[in-house]
Amino acid sequence: MSKVFSTSLRCRLPCLLFFFQGALLLLFILFVTYDEHTDAASQSPDADPSANQLYAFFSLFQDIQLMLLVGLGLLLAFMKGYGISAVAYNFLMANFATQWALIVQGFMHHYHQGKVHLGLYNILTAEFAAVTVLISAGAVLGRTSPLQLLLMALCEIPLYVVGEWLTVTRLQAVDVGGTITLHVFACYFGLGVSIALYRPGLQRGHPKENPSYLSDLLSLVGTMILWVFWPSFIASLARQGDAQHRAVLHTWVTLSSSALTSFATSSLLEKKGKLNMSHLQNATLAGGVAIGAVADMAITPAGASVLGIVSSLACILGFKYMTPFLATKIHLQDQCGIHNLHGLPGIIGAVGGIVAILWIPDEAYGLRLHQVFPPHAPPLGNISMAETTSEGQELGRTASQQALYQAAGLGVSFVVSLVGGYLTGLVLKLPFLAQPPDDLCFDDALYFKIQEPVETWCVVQAHEDLHLPLKDNV
Amino acid sequence: MSKVFSTSLRCRLPCLLFFFQGALLLLFILFVTYDEHTDAASQSPDADPSANQLYAFFSLFQDIQLMLLVGLGLLLAFMKGYGISAVAYNFLMANFATQWALIVQGFMHHYHQGKVHLGLYNILTAEFAAVTVLISAGAVLGRTSPLQLLLMALCEIPLYVVGEWLTVTRLQAVDVGGTITLHVFACYFGLGVSIALYRPGLQRGHPKENPSYLSDLLSLVGTMILWVFWPSFIASLARQGDAQHRAVLHTWVTLSSSALTSFATSSLLEKKGKLNMSHLQNATLAGGVAIGAVADMAITPAGASVLGIVSSLACILGFKYMTPFLATKIHLQDQCGIHNLHGLPGIIGAVGGIVAILWIPDEAYGLRLHQVFPPHAPPLGNISMAETTSEGQELGRTASQQALYQAAGLGVSFVVSLVGGYLTGLVLKLPFLAQPPDDLCFDDALYFKIQEPVETWCVVQAHEDLHLPLKDNV
Amino acid sequence: MSKVFSTSLRCRLPCLLFFFQGALLLLFILFVTYDEHTDAASQSPDADPSANQLYAFFSLFQDIQLMLLVGLGLLLAFMKGYGISAVAYNFLMANFATQWALIVQGFMHHYHQGKVHLGLYNILTAEFAAVTVLISAGAVLGRTSPLQLLLMALCEIPLYVVGEWLTVTRLQAVDVGGTITLHVFACYFGLGVSIALYRPGLQRGHPKENPSYLSDLLSLVGTMILWVFWPSFIASLARQGDAQHRAVLHTWVTLSSSALTSFATSSLLEKKGKLNMSHLQNATLAGGVAIGAVADMAITPAGASVLGIVSSLACILGFKYMTPFLATKIHLQDQCGIHNLHGLPGIIGAVGGIVAILWIPDEAYGLRLHQVFPPHAPPLGNISMAETTSEGQELGRTASQQALYQAAGLGVSFVVSLVGGYLTGLVLKLPFLAQPPDDLCFDDALYFKIQEPVETWCVVQAHEDLHLPLKDNV
């Protein structure tokens, strides 16, 4: 059936992108102006230039961009003939989704006096939104056209903004590194899409799904880049000072524990103790997903280490047992194993947050309690620093109450994303979206004008030389 | 004819490099000393160490080095058997040209009390000079020996310094991100060289010019690295504070618009809507070239977006129609398409600067007008901050006058570079410079002791296996 | 003989890693707590968040992590079928060794009131310790199992901490960038291990030792990353202010001189003047190794340039003449040539430090003499800044005395590492450590579940196609 429709992107991709970029440009012209950090006219003559907000996070912003476009791009490039698509679509979606989030978040959070006020900080928060799209796409990578991926981004971004608003603004759940609002949301949205896009023809695997030696190596390099800059990602939205320092420290400790645990567990589960590349590429990052929910809490380095160990264990067990189980039982195709890297560690991190809130006494935070837990801390009487008062502070919840709200936040994120993802997936089945037919999945050559990868070429050539029939379309 | 001369680098390359490094060392010994930021003896006892100039730009400096040596190196490594040369020559030229610019700029701008005063900031500005060489080399990549490339750097650096002095110091044109002085200059210098080095034998293409699957992928990764750190490049010479913040914001917006426009346009122009790799590798960066001329002006985010859209459109149309046209009509061989990525967007950016100066009212800058437009702003009566007064401020030009000077700056940059490049190219035709013969162009093995790339090897092998004659020297 | 024992990692690698991570977790739980920069409860209400220690070095820390995990990983990935091992083991060892150093250094230097106090700065110094392991492993790369590498890390870290304590704390040798304590130590430790692990069967080389075209290219990219971020590494432990600025400036100048000298020398020594990849991959970094001992001294840019030229010359001459000589005469197998990149430049740097101390007059440092040379400077009478007084300052050594102590530091580092390495090597010969047999050395497939690299595959295929016997196990 899927072969009936054209897979040509001509006209369709340009139309979508030009229309989108044109519409956004119109909104920019009509509504977008500078914020107080970027507007020249509103600078006071005695303002200290080095105190501009830019310097509080610009190097973190660059780190995060490198993570997303190079690190994640390479990590996704693990299939032998789909590396160019992985890097290019990742780049395309990141830009599409960030611009879109800039507008959606802008009208939602930064609209006053008839204008959306823009500085680099807005782009940072918009990139967080875009990350959800990049993660979700991992579930359907190689089985979707760029048109489908862009439409997915179009649907996912507003839903993410709503989900985040419900979880963080309404429920006042604490989630400094986006474990609940970002990773859990992105994972179940992606799985929802994947369920809707289920293809029986790919149930028994596809010859082009496999990595080559070099794609495995490049993917591992991508993991390294993500691993290195993960602390910047987690810390970027944490409060300046000791909170940000704790976030960085915890993230390093949890990632390092994840790394050692991944090598150990992979070797334990594979024949002859050999190390499995997809375990190393993914599970070494699992702690980074989990830590987001608790990064600035006083969980102690030991707590961070436990979280890293448990998350990477869950991730590898997920790859080994859960992914095949889900594929067989509920027809869930999860191309990059996002459930193992984002779903399970995300839930573990969210639960860890609840445990941490119940377990750690308020005294561990001293005067910083108001910063780390605005809704939990008692209202402040006399505070000298303006930035310590923030939304939610008047709530005065007990720790148990806050724990309940955290659980509610996790539930909201899970339900909204899974349902939203499934509905989005149904939309993506529309016939004019150039979805690749089964036999042309996982193949760069379908949408890119490129050389065939040498690996494929060599295999083909060798078979021809030996006069062997070619099986599996290789 | 070109085969008559030896292509051996032995003696010639070592002689040039040892002589150059030796001469520079002599100049360092005789004339170079620390500046006030690096000299221990001149530090006052109560100086705040954290206020050292280093911290204002060190992380930007590292970002830029990564762009140049890894990002640009990989981007240039798009030919299947010329990746090692691309990365290695890029590295060699960057060092040669930066050291040379350090001396030339040092004697021109930092020479007082009989000494050239050196700090890391000098290396940053010298690297800007070196970038021109790296860009220009793109026009003749693969058709030149390292000796020729180094001689080109030797000629280009002083000319760049003169061109920049004419444009920025004499004409007081505003160009914070180097669109006019750097990109336009580098492009037409490179094209001048290329015209002089025209080879009829390469007119109909060369079998080794093509990318392989992996070289295309690595080149795209290079694009990603350049894309990510471009804001650091543009902002590094902008004034601290809101001006630098605007520069970063505009650069991101323009690059993002370029990215989406590139995907759209490439798909529109290619058969079956397939995406063309060289479009994605280049045009996604076009906005970054153009934005340099206006990065800190109050062009609004919408203006930055327009610039990104127009630049990437021009870049792709250039690749599709202008490069073949120029190659046929005026025998202009432009290996990496620098005219499309640096020439056209550079001119667009320069024109954008003129429009912005004429269009944006002075009120948009408030008290910052003196910072963004020293020659345009009226002389200041009473300024509290010392750094707001700068050269040119007494000129008091009208906006129209400033616009004329901008146009003059563009003209000077264009003429000086094209003529200088052509004359340099004539010098590079000297017979003892080890220029590769036509059939050994685009081949790493000529100047490097390496393994043949597997792609070539496989092709050769397959042809041998099949007893087919090898055509095209593959 | 070596074939008698199993090479399966199953049980052994998981046991070692789980036991190690478990033991460390126990120590974390019992003894590790936050330091004053990360502990929320101990923050005073009026503390300036932007003055947190984190911001003094976080971006340097990220740079260094990128160097170690991506840069060094890729540099080591130069063998055609051992790239995955190189990157993965480098990652594994880095985490294992850093965690281990965190505990060893923690109990040695940061233990008070019954607790080890932890902040990100501890992780930075622990990573310096881990670097020694990563360097040492270069001597035996491909001939060792991951078990052996981890055991080596287990032995090397405490010895490094002791060696550093002897050199820096007891002898008060000055070594801001770790030339003596880190590079010289790591090199001779690794060579000691290699001597103990000598294998006659590999004396005449191994077919898989060679690079492929792409592994050579990726390794060069690794060099670029290391080259770019080397200034961050050298400067990270230097004092803030002009000292750190000098360290960065000197490192750039020395690296740049090394780069040009490497191209010149390589071309001089190879047939037809071709450039040798291993020269470019290594010798361009040699100056960075040497500069560590003198980075913040007033050696002038010319001095830094001389150091870069001499170091890279020594490095290439080492590759060309010394490595073959040592291999033949004393059976020293040095897989990555660490003696050329770390040993010789390390000794040159240490000697350079002695010369600089004897040569440069105290006046060149002014009031900063106490910062650069605590043990050499006369005791301070009246100092306003608290951080200028430091351990050793009361010693009041003359320059000649200090020079002698520097030489003693070099000697201690050399002897402790060589003997310690040899003894460690003897331990690594224990039969149950899964050491690879000769014919399976340098082969990713032994310990990883992967695709064969296409290069190997093509070669095999070609031989089969041509009905040629396969020699050398390729």
From TrEMBL, chains A, B, C:
It comes from the Eukaryota. Coiled coil: none annotated. The lineage of its organism: Eukaryota, Metazoa, Chordata, Craniata, Vertebrata. This is Ammonium transporter Rh type A-like. SUPFAM superfamilies: Ammonium transporter. Pfam families: Ammonium_transp. The gene is LOC129329764. GO terms for molecular function: ammonium channel activity. Keywords: Ammonia transport, Glycoprotein, Membrane, Transmembrane, Transmembrane helix, Transport.
